[in-house]
Amino acid sequence: MTPDRGTRKRGLPIRRASRAGSRWALAVPSTGRHALRMESPAALEAQRTLESRVAAIDSRLDLFDEIARLKRERNAVILAHYYQEPDIQDIADFIGDSLQLSQEAKRTAADVIVFCGVHFMAETAKILNPEKKVVLPDLEAGCSLAEGCPADRFAAWRQRFPGAVAVSYINCSADVKALSDIICTSSNAEKIVRSIPADKTVLFAPDRNLGKWVEKRTGRDMKLWLGSCVVHETFSERKLVALVDAHPDAEVIAHPECEEPILRRAKFVGSTSALLGYVTKSPAKAFIVATEPGILHQMQKAAPEKTLIAAPPEGNCACNECPFMKRNSLEKVYLALRDLQPEITLDESVRVRALASVERMLSLS
Ligand code: 13P
Ligand code: SF4
User: Fold this and answer.
1) What is the C-alpha to C-alpha distance for residues 138 and 340, in angstroms, rounded to an integer?
2) pTM
């Protein structure tokens, strides 16, 4: 899809404009948003400040031109996850899944990384690049998996299994990475677990659904942390069945963070990049996609002749959209480049220990 620059200046309904004419089909009306938990008065104040900085942006600015200019001036690179809104994907230098983004963060020669994704992803870029400035357009772009696995509780859980190997999904904080033996993403979790000697107990945190899927693939019994993704646990099996009945030729494809009843109905299960690759290569003409619908933007570009249907959540809401990913906007990307904040900072001893577990993953990927 060619960017329509005329509709992408500030103040216009950017996301609607981007979707117009596409063959995406949201099976439910986009009405609701998750309420976000604000941690502290300081976080609330930072959020208010960010919102007022957004409101103060000169509406005559062409944000696309400004972002391109600032990127050159700062020698910056924009890395974006597939769940970012289409406009952000269109201005990104690199779009990828969690693994590809960490690999790209490791290889970039830029001085500044603008990470258009969520906090744990930007933190991973900083773990790999202590000398670079890493900015996240909205610091409140968190993740339910990372939030549901605080480092103190994770450390206590680990202690209950002496000698076990702790595999942590990249969707966790730097503190949890520092307490882990090795990191994995949805695209390499099976391979990472298979690399661990059979006589070792494996602890897998924080996503129980990905953990259960890896158990099924490897036949390995693991101790699972009982976390989940608020987005992927929202898909409705009942509505999915109805959708399959209405579109008998469509193939169901799903991210492994989905719950078992959804995964059971999927023809293909994989990470965001694997799902994109599958849609491109499969001879099928229509797909029901059980993951965050941001991925449909690249699917549509890669396979414009195919029909993509977003799998429906149980409620009449837009809860299949990640409320954290969607905190970033073009305006906030512009501000992050202009002001080089909000910046990701890390305690050096945590960073060094987290780096060891991230590097172990990268060397196996
Ligand atoms: P990927 O590893 O497929 O990018 O998934 C990341 C994520 O947060 C999914 O919810
Ligand atoms: Fe976290 Fe789920 Fe959002 Fe991915 S989609 S960032 S796992 S809350």
Assistant:
1) 12
2) 0.89
